[in-house]
Amino acid sequence: MSPTRPPLRIAMHPADNVAIVANDGGLPAGTVFPDGLTLVDKVPQAHKVALADIPEGGAVRRYDVTIGYALKPLPRGSWVHERLLQMPEARSLEGLPIATVRPEPLPPLDGYTFEGYRNADGSVGTRNILAITQTVQCVAGVTDFAVRRIKAELLPRYPNVDDVVALEHSYGCGVAIDAPDAVVPIRTLRNISLNPNFGGEVMVVSLGCEKLQPERLLPPGAIPLVDERSVADVGTSEDAKLDVVCLQDEAHVGFMAMVESILRQAEVHLARLDARRRETVPASELVVGVQCGGSDAFSGVTANPAVGFCTDLLVRAGATVMFSEVTEVRDGIDQLTARAATPEVAQAMIDQMAWYDAYLQRGQVDRSANTTPGNKKGGLSNIVEKAMGSIVKSGSAPISGVVAPGEKARQKGLLYAATPASDFICGTLQLAAGMNLHVFTTGRGTPYGLAEAPVIKVATRTDLARRWHDLMDVNAGRIADGEASIEDMGWELFRLMLDVASGRRKTWAEQWKLHNQLVLFNPAPVT
User: Distance between CA atoms of 368 and 356, rounded to whole angstroms?
Assistant: First the structure.
């Protein structure tokens, strides 16, 4: 937004008594808005200005929700920030509205397709990747060395394979592997290994002495058969032998012997993947994870509403969309339970919130720890305000199911995938749920990426999109600039998703090969 533009503020609801300043660089004290509102203080961009006198103890409202209580009198035109607010108590999990919202069904959105890879289990990939699963962190160095050689020496021979990735993590040993909560990281890694973008080709590198043995990670029957040849060879998936390279095997005399074993097995999988071709599939085969990170006060104004509109389009097209981040929706739990398709779905969401409340209590922290210094610099005063902007990514469709951490999504429509708010843990768990395409919104900016699925990055502000022009795929700041509507941006994102899913477009994160290590959520004790 040009600094020469007249002063502009954005209020989210007529009942709000604060609005955010939209001008790049903020506005100085003494600035007069067209309606006569005069700034008492200098107000940075995305930060709140009081629209009326707010008494000490008075409710500060944004999104028609009380986001805090004034710690001192706040005159009209003053800067309202986190140091001036008392955060409200968390909404009780008792007495919530249960499946009370019954919106009129939106018409189906038919005729939209993309070019994807159909898998033996019926899922569809947007990429054709060889993933090498690691049972334990100890093998990461060897696997990384081998993957670099695979990419340099083998991958050029198989032009239909998009990439080779090592599923690196820090789990597998030195943990209480039999603790009740250990099921979470184990099933997470198992389900990531079976992500649709990997074509059903499962290859494992093991050390040999680790607690998480390959057969425990991927027990008989866990791996779908890849093709008819496999059926002829082994009969059923229960009979299929897991492909494991064990570094402690006596046949491995020296480091290079280990590496050569990995390369030899990788070539078998590469050959099968290379024989696959994209085919036209309906948009209903998309499994999209939506997430925000490095959020600011524009997140709930521009990018997240555009994603929410796109979410509704995807649901109308029959696709699966997952929104997540327990702590970033906890303060809007009443909105979510009201939108549940059934009382059972509402109760499942409440159960996930209660579990996470207890988890935070065990760690002697509370939800106020969620907001980062960057969130606050970007105008978000606390987790209540952040949550209201986060939830809008979910659009308006009924919530049809809940996916527990590490579980696989098994139904269509809008799902709540319960994850922590950490970008990398959330992305990891959404991959485990079967995500084949990721949408990530950011206001402060982050180079976040995943090697396992394309990540479409959406900037909340034009200034960020301009500065990070080769990292951001979509500029939702055009909404605040008055150059596009939420609906315009939602449709633009929807069409971009079909192009990216088809391989016709690469995201900036893919072009730069930016990705982060998987982070397994491990609530079990470490030994």
Answer: 14
- Do 308 and 393 contact (CB within 8 A), yes or no? yes
Which of 296, 484, 472, 299 lies closest to 393 in space, CA to CA? 299
CA dihedral sign of residues 261, 227, 165, 150: positive
Cβ–Cβ < 8 Å for 336, 349: yes
Q: pLDDT tens, 112-131?
A: 999 999 999 999 999 999 99
pLDDT per position as a tens digit, 375-426: 999 999 999 999 999 999 999 999 999 999 999 999 999 999 999 999 999 9
On whether the CB atoms of residues 402 and 432 are closer than 8 A, the answer is no
What 3-state DSSP class applies to 400? strand
SS3 519: coil
Q: Are strands 203-206 and 129-134 parallel, antiparallel or unpaired?
A: parallel
The answer to whether 280 and 113 have CB atoms below 8 angstroms apart is yes
Both tokens of residue 460? 């909340």
Nearest one of 189, 127, 113 to 455, comparing CA atoms: 127
| HEC letters along 91-149 | CCCCCCCCCCCCCCCCCCCCCCEEEEEECCCCCEECCCEEEEEECCHHHHHHHHHHHHH
- Is residue 501 within 8 A of residue 317, CB to CB? The reply is no
Q: How far apart are CA 514 and CA 453, in angstroms?
A: 11
Tell me what pLDDT residue 520 has: 93
Gyration radius (Cα) of the chain, Å: 24
Average pLDDT, integer, range 211-221 = 95
Q: Whole-angstrom Cα distance, residue 322 to residue 391?
A: 12
Number of other CB atoms surrounding residue 254 within 10 Å: 8
Q: What tokens were used for 435?
A: 């995500």
Among the listed residues 211, 85, 72, the one whose alpha carbon sits nearest the alpha carbon of residue 137: 211
- DSSP letter at 151? I
Q: Which tokens is 461 given?
A: 């502000």
Residues 6+ apart with CB under 8 A from 113: 280, 281, 282, 283, 498
With helix as H, strand as E and coil as C, how does 21-72 read?
ECCCCCECCCCECCCCCECCCCECCCCEEECCCECCCCEEEECCEEEEEECC
Cα–Cα distance, 431 to 403 (Å, whole number):
12
The dihedrals phi and psi of 289, each to the nearest 5 degrees, come to -105, 130
